[in-house]
Design a protein that fits this description.
The complex is a heterodimer. By secondary structure, chain A is of the alpha/beta class. Chain A is about 20% helix and about 30% strand. Chain A has 2 domains: about 210 residues, 3-Layer(bba) Sandwich (FAD/NAD(P)-binding domain), CATH 3.50.50; about 120 residues, FAD/NAD(P)-binding domain. In chain A, α1 runs parallel beside α6 and α4 crosses α5. The termini of chain A are far apart. The mean pLDDT of chain A is about 95. Chain B is α+β, with helices and mostly antiparallel strands. Chain B has one domain: Ubiquitin-like (UB roll) (Roll), CATH 3.10.20. Chain B is globular, with a radius of gyration of 13 Å. The mean pLDDT of chain B is about 90. Classes of the chains: A alpha/beta, B alpha+beta. Chains A and B meet through loops of A and α2 of B. The structure holds flavin-adenine dinucleotide and FE2/S2 (inorganic) cluster. Chain B: Belongs to the adrenodoxin/putidaredoxin family. Chain B: Keywords: 2Fe-2S, Iron, Iron-sulfur, Metal-binding. Chain B: GO terms for molecular function: 2 iron, 2 sulfur cluster binding; electron transfer activity; metal ion binding. Chain B: Its cofactor is [2Fe-2S] cluster. Chain B: It comes from Christiangramia flava JLT2011.
Chain lengths: ~350, ~110
């Protein structure tokens, strides 16, 4: 069991900055994120795009903003559970919460902060009728262990980098790899596209373009996919396969948090913004893109602001007997849990008699 | 510059004829969002960068009046589901006076 003062679900910009604000108040944080890397939308969707409305940064790449946030919170030594989705929450008798992930990792904290943005990023599933019946029975949306495909027949669908990269990788592992794509053009790194072309020429990848997988066949286990060609003359073909792997990228979904008994409005969690961004369950806060209140703006700036306010209230919850007075970092400096201390240099004052 | 009338058929099949401003540098996705014609979180996820396809719509008339698809839009539609010949990303369609009377249907959201 991982124990911490403040458990933050979501390591996007809001969750990361909350670690800093909590650290100033001597609260230790642990973050859970479904993605394998921190940074939320900034890292997953647009790391190389510039942002222009972060105060004090006329222009900053989203990826660099995340790197800077990580650097800023380093002294507060946050823990991370990455690549796992927070699945369940249980309130304990002492008022604390236990949050468990889809991989069974448990975390306990007196305060839980949901900084889940638009939700956890999940694979986009193609709208093929009955596809869910074949999940883990031949259909997978993520390749976890490539060895599963050794000497098997595999059909991959998609036209982006992951479809290209995995087709290349599995060409040496699987018995047969087919890559089905809706167009002839691929939107991926040029060298990957060229490599797939090469492997297709020597018969290591069976490239099927201008076509789509439209149906799945098999009794309890996948044994064929139905491929429809755009060219009506070619019509449909049934292709025998052991595995079908549609790779169409990720899209965010509120996911399990929606079932935690929190008040939800318009796909977001309702909070008391006039005070502290607490949800309808005391001890659970929601900050950043994931919350909603009258006048809400989904901006990084607003997530940062909400993190600062939330931490004051969380501090009081964890330390009901202590009175906290807000301090400026310029005056009080930043003392990390790692023993580091940053503070402004004092002027040397010397009086001459 | 004046507002134009646009008809948007939402995901439930209901048609809404709304006024869209031509002087606010808006695109069609932003108009759909401002009138709350699709559930929050299901449209405009990438903020209008042709990177998510959540704003896909079907153009029911005036197709020839719209700007040509950019490579980014082609590529994204290529990754999207429920794509038809008249599919476009509404975030790539700026609102101009020429589009008075435009009719579109919002493509289904992913489950
Ligand atoms: C293309 C684009 C451009 C943008 N440009 C700007 C801009 O210029 N300026 C600006 O201010 N904003 C911009 N934004 C919006 C900005 O990115 C968001 O406001 C910001 O990312 C919100 O941060 P967040 O930390 O609240 O959520 P997110 O960044 O969405 O992070 C949330 C994290 O929580 C995780 N998560 C959710 N649920 C779970 C769960 N159950 N278990 C585990 N992990 C979970 C997710 O995996 C995700 O990593 C832009 C957004 C996009 C997509
Ligand atoms: S809003 Fe993402 S593609 Fe249009």
């Amino acid at each position: 069991m991982i124990k911490t003062d403040m458990l933050i679900i979501g390591a996007g910009p809001t969750g990361l900055f909350a670690v800093f604000e909590a650290g100033l108040l001597k609260m230790k944080c642990h973050l859970i994120d479904a993605l394998p890397q921190p940074g939320g939308q900034c890292s997953e969707i647009y790391p190389k795009k510039p942002i222009y409305d972060i105060p004090g940064f006329p222009e900053v790449l989203a990826g660099d903003l995340v790197d800077n946030l990580m650097e800023q919170i380093k002294p507060f030594e946050p823990g991370f559970t990455l690549g796992e989705r927070a699945e369940t929450i249980e309130k304990q008798e002492d008022g604390s919460f236990i949050v468990t992930t889809n991989k069974g990792t448990s975390h306990q904290a007196p305060v839980v902060v949901i900084a889940g943005g638009l939700g956890s990023f999940e694979p986009r599933k193609p709208p093929i009728k009955g596809i869910q019946d074949y999940e883990d029975k031949g259909v997978a949306y993520i390749i976890r262990d490539p060895e599963v495909y050794r000497d098997k027949k595999v059909v991959i669908a998609g036209g982006g980098d992951s479809a290209l990269d995995w087709s290349i990788f599995l060409a040496d592992v699987a018995k047969e790899v087919s890559l089905v794509h809706r167009r002839k053009d691929f939107r991926g790194a040029l060298d990957s596209v060229e490599k797939v072309e090469e492997l297709s020429k020597i018969g290591k990848i069976n490239l099927i373009t201008d076509a789509e997988v439209v149906d799945l066949k098999g009794e309890g286990q996948l044994d064929a996919v139905l491929i429809r060609h755009k060219d009506e003359a070619r019509g449909e073909e049934l292709k025998e396969t052991d595995h079908f792997i549609p790779l169409f990228g990720l899209s965010p979904k509120l996911g399990p948090i929606a079932n935690w008994g929190l008040e939800i409005e318009k796909n977001a969690i309702k909070v008391d913004n006039t005070y502290d961004y607490q949800t309808n369950i005391p001890g659970i806060y929601a900050i950043g893109d994931v919350n909603t209140y009258k006048g809400k703006l989904k901006l990084i700036l607003c997530g940062f602001h909400e993190a600062a306010i939330m931490c004051q209230s969380a501090y009081q919850k964890i330390n009901p007997d202590k009175k906290y007075v807000m301090k400026y970092t310029t005056v009080s400096g930043v003392s990390g849990f790692d023993g580091s201390k940053k503070e402004a240099k004092r002027e040397v004052v010397k009086s001459i008699n | 510059m004046s507002d134009i009338k646009i008809t948007i058929i939402d995901r439930q099949g209901e048609a809404h004829t709304i006024d869209a401003p031509t002087d606010m540098n808006m695109n069609l996705m932003e108009v759909i969002r401002s009138y709350e014609l699709a559930e929050e979180g299901t449209i405009g996820i990438c903020g209008g960068m042709a990177m998510c396809a959540s704003c896909q719509c079907y153009i029911l008339n005036f197709e020839h009046m719209l700007p040509e698809k950019s490579i980014e839009e082609e590529d994204m539609l290529d990754q999207a589901f429920f794509v038809e010949d008249n599919s476009r990303l509404s975030c790539q369609i700026p609102i101009t006076e020429d589009l008075e009377g435009l009719e579109i249907r919002i493509a289904p959201a992913l489950e």
